Amino acid sequence: MGLLDALFGGGSKLKAPAPDRLFAMTTAHVTLETELDLHSRGVAGIVFQPLSTGDFTALVREAEELLASAAEDTGSRVESADDSHGYRWIKVRDSDFEDLVVSLNLISSQLQSGGYGDRLLACVFPFTQGTGGRSVHFIYNFKRGSFYPFVPAGGPQARDNEEELRLKAQVGGELPIEPELTRWFPLWDVPL
Length: 192
Hints:
By secondary structure, the protein is of the alpha+beta class. It has one domain (14-177): Alpha-Beta Plaits. It is 37% helix and 23% strand. A hairpin with a 4-residue loop joins strand 6 and strand 7. The longest helix is centred in the middle third of the chain and has 21 residues, at 54-74.
């Protein structure tokens, strides 16, 4: 069992695909930008646990090709890489925030329709706060079907819990926020 498995519930099954929950980020983005001074970095990523089977590899390749084809129309740039824990990240860069959400949904839908929804771990949407450039991440946990804010603080593996709670209160009406704070797992060294 890897780090992200332990954090996001390893072998548990997804309750059901909930693409509408992921799309909530599209509408929340307006509030994040206009009311909270949070600006998208123009990148987002989806992370999942890969399998070494031919079927899974073919499905991921097909999903990446589909995304690359769609990216030609939208101007998105797509990259994929494995992290140090053995998880696969597919990163999408685009100045249009809605294109980022749609692209990540496309990947998650492909894996879910192929019977591998249980391999999905999270989507990460990084923002910069104000002119100071503070990092704020909104993380969508597939196993829980909810978002939570993650705000790294100045020190190594330190986080700003107060700011995270403030963000929860400010966007909780627009995003399905994870109600259990113990499930707000930090994702350090996100490759975005």
